[in-house]
Amino acid sequence: MTLRKTLLVAIVLASCIDAHAQVVGSQPLSVTVEQSNALLQGWSVKQSVLGKTVYNDQNVKIGTIRDLVVDPSGSLSAAIISAGGFLGVAVHDVAVPIGVLIQSPPKPKKLQGQ
Question: Which domains can be identified in the chain, with CATH numbers?
Answer without folding.
Answer: 50-103 (2.30.30.240)
